[in-house]
Amino acid sequence: MLCSSSYLRNEADAINSIAEISTPSQRGMLLSGYQTALQFAALVGFWSAFAAHSGFPDSSNLQWKIPVAVQLLPGVLLLFGTTAITESPKFLAQKGRFERAEQSIAWLRGLPKGHGDVAVEVDELLDMTEDVPERSHKFFHALQKKSIRRRLVVGVGLMIAQNMVGLNALNYCMLPCGTTDLHKY
């Protein structure tokens, strides 16, 4: 339970980071690309484990070292990549560092600091950070709207359905069966 709650918190942090640093016109594409990259990484991880299990004897340490190395590589790249990106403009604005938030927006958009688009986005950010104390209590108020409840039910339903299709059962049950040893049965 702790692992899954930690995973969901980290997943939510990553989605918030993408949403905070992207323009509204690019946000959907970036979030979809993020989810696609996660699924592709899982696919590569499973296939690398399968290849190592199939290609090396059971006594070899390479059976676990190769899949771990393959799966650690994107994480290490992400770790080093985070050192090259600026702080979230929203985070900086919430801390009262508006000048730094403007610099961050300009850097993320590749525009000069005084550009009109940067100024508009800074103004929106200022308005948003002023409303934060009021907006934090509106979650349950928003749930009173039928359209919001419907969206929430669809999102939670999709998450539940994803777990009910049996992929996790296949992942955990097929590997111990030894998919390469099926011809013995």
Provide a brief overview of the structure.
This protein has 185 residues and is mostly helical. The chain has 3 domains: 1-85, no CATH class; 88-136; 140-185, no CATH class. The chain contains 10 helices and no strands.
Q: How much of the residues is beta strand, in percent?
A: under 5%
Percent range of helical residues: over 70%
Unreliable sequence segments = 1-12
- Overall pLDDT confidence: 77
Radius of gyration: 22 Å
Total separate domains = 3
**Span from first to last CA?**
36 Å
The topology string of helices and strands comes to: HHHHHHHHHH
What would you say this structure looks like, in words?
Helices cover 78% and strands 0% of the residues. With 185 residues, it is mainly α. It has 3 domains: 1-85, no CATH class; 88-136; 140-185, no CATH class. Helix 2 (24-55) packs antiparallel against helix 3 and helix 5 (98-109) packs across helix 6 (116-130). The two termini are 36 Å apart. Mean pLDDT is 77; it is low at 1-12.
Notable traits:
about 180 residues; mainly alpha; 3 domains; disordered N terminus
Layout of strands and helices, then pairs:
Layout: H1 2-21, H2 24-55, H3 62-82, H4 89-94, H5 98-109, H6 116-130, H7 132-135, H8 139-142, H9 146-164, H10 167-177
